[in-house]
Amino acid sequence: MKKNLALWTWGVIAAPLVYLAFVWNQLPAIVPTHFGPSGEPDGFGPKWTLMILSAISVGMYFFMKYVPKIDPRLDQAQLSKHYPKLILLILTFLSAVHVLVIRSAIQRVTDELFINLIFVGVFLLLAGIGNYLNNIKSNYFVGIRTPWTLESESVWRKTHQTGARLFFAIGIVGALVVVWLPGVWKIVWTVGLTMLTTFGLLIYSYVVYRQEKSN
Predict the structure, then answer these.
(1) Which residues does residue 177 pair with via DSSP β-bridges, in sequence order?
(2) Which residues, in sequence order, are CB contacts of 26 under 8 Å at separation 6+?
(3) Nearest alpha-carbon partner for 154 in 170, 138, 165, 169
(4) If you average pLDDT over residues 112-116, what whole number do you get?
(5) In this prediction, what percent of the chain has a pLDDT beyond 90?
(6) Cβ(168)–Cβ(127) under 8 Å?
(7) How far apart (Å, rounded) are the C-alpha atoms in residues 1 and 165?
(8) Domain residue limits, the chain
(9) Which helix (H) or strand (E) holds 179?
(10) Is the entire prediction scored with pTM above 0.85?
(11) DSSP string, 105-140
């Protein structure tokens, strides 16, 4: 299972590069490299810069895979049996964005469609993270790390159980709503909903911790 997940992960990382090689001669010398809130490109560069996104994915893979291993708590328990799936999920999102950017450099995707695909992808990523969040064990690198969740195993568990439900819910609801919002309100909706949920979980972990200490 671990071997298959590793193969899938490297396949996801390589897919945009394979696509880029296939369409290389179709790309103009100067391509869009950055997009504004409206989906309109506001940054340009030579076409080789499109490979940078794959370099970011590779760096992200090694960071997520190996940095948690220096956590002293992982000597006692593994982070999560589903953690490799979480890595695959995040890298799949990055690769999908990479392919979309390459495609838009060949044939302009309408600004509204481009921006909707990005924001829907972000919310589906949050829903996917929520699906795996509940299984992550206490550690210093991954999860909802507050002073109170790191202090208590039970506070960690309760906060992540609640967080898993909340992130899955805002992921689904957010994706359904964001496509109907105009322009900058997509950003307000996405950032606002994510920050509200994160701040709510911060308060929740403190309240649960205080209740535990009182008891």
Answers:
(1) none
(2) 106
(3) 138
(4) 83
(5) 59
(6) yes
(7) 26
(8) 2-214
(9) none
(10) yes
(11) HHSPPPHHHHHHHHHHHHHHHHHHHHHHHTTPPS-S
What are the structure tokens assigned to 134, written together? Answer: 């509940």
CA distances from 189 to 23, 117, 121, 170 (A): 35, 15, 14, 11
Nearest 5°: the CA angle 74, 8, 20 is: 125
Is 73 within 8 Å of 139 (Cβ atoms)?
yes
Q: What is the pLDDT of residues 54-111, one digit of tens each?
A: 999 999 999 998 888 888 877 655 788 889 999 999 999 999 999 988 988 887 666 6
Nearest-5° Cα angle at 2, 81 to 21: 120
Q: Is 183 left (phi over 0), alpha (psi -120 to 50) or beta?
A: left
Distance CA 183, CA 31 (A): 23
Side-chain half-sphere CA neighbours of 109 within 13 A: 20
Asked whether the predicted pLDDT for residue 172 surpasses 60, the reply is yes
Segment holding 1, helix H or strand E? none
H helices within the chain, ranges in order?
2-23, 52-66, 83-106, 111-133, 147-151, 153-178, 185-214
